[in-house]
Design a protein that fits this description.
With 211 residues, this protein is an alpha+beta fold. It has four helices and twelve strands, in the order H-E-E-E-E-H-E-E-E-H-E-H-E-E-E-E.
């Protein structure tokens, strides 16, 4: 009997441990996420800088625009190395608008690596790379809270999500080493520097949001 009780108690503790590993919803939001439109962006003229110290680095994040991205998650990649990962533990590739119509995005193969996202398509695909870039993005996510970090790192391909926060320009310093990381402010640019760097303040999936 004692052994049986011990096993039961250990199992219950194990379940609680697993439950504690995931993000905790901050509230209930039943409104559907509209993925048909472009991300919304509004310039911020004099937002207060955000200061973060991690791993011996002192970072200053200057908000340049408020930003809300509503779309379908194409892929998500977690990162662990380099100074960028001290701020941004994951990138989320998403699509919206015209790329979602009639399941067009399904005609492409999506992947992520090295803080980039990639797509491939066959000869039957009727759109251009510029079109794909216009209706998709790779977002470097900087969670404002540990709970948001858990939620962002748990996103999966096929999730419909709403990411809300601020696009930021970043400078960092550790000893004599200086670094910088700037967000794109356009949906039509491509190549190096075209990803959004988002200070994430709210994430919504399904009927719940996380803060």
């Amino acid at each position: 009997m004692l052994a049986r009780m011990f096993r039961a108690g250990s199992f219950a503790a194990f379940i609680l441990l697993l439950a504690g590993c995931g993000a905790a919803p901050s509230g209930y939001d039943p409104d559907p996420i509209d993925t048909s439109g472009d991300p919304t962006q509004e310039t911020l003229e004099s937002a207060e800088p955000i200061q973060i110290s991690r791993g011996g680095y002192d970072f200053v994040l200057v908000p340049k625009a408020s930003y809300v991205l509503r779309g379908l998650v194409l892929s998500r990649e977690n990162y662990y190395g380099g100074w960028q990962s001290l701020l941004s533990p994951c990138d989320v590739a998403m699509a919206w608008g015209e790329l979602l119509k009639d399941g067009l995005y399904k005609q492409l193969d999506w992947s992520q690596s090295g803080r980039w996202y990639w797509w491939q398509y066959g000869p039957g695909f009727s759109r251009t790379n510029a079109f794909v870039a216009r209706y998709s993005s790779n977002t470097h996510v900087i969670p404002a809270t540990p709970n948001l970090a858990k939620a962002a790192k748990s996103l999966h391909s096929g999730d419909v999500a709403e990411l809300t926060g601020k696009l930021v320009f970043i400078t960092g310093k550790k000893g004599g080493f200086n670094c910088w990381w700037n967000s794109s402010l356009s949906r039509s640019d491509t190549g190096d520097g075209s990803c959004e760097v988002l200070y994430l303040e709210r994430l919504k999936t399904g009927d719940h949001y996380y803060e």
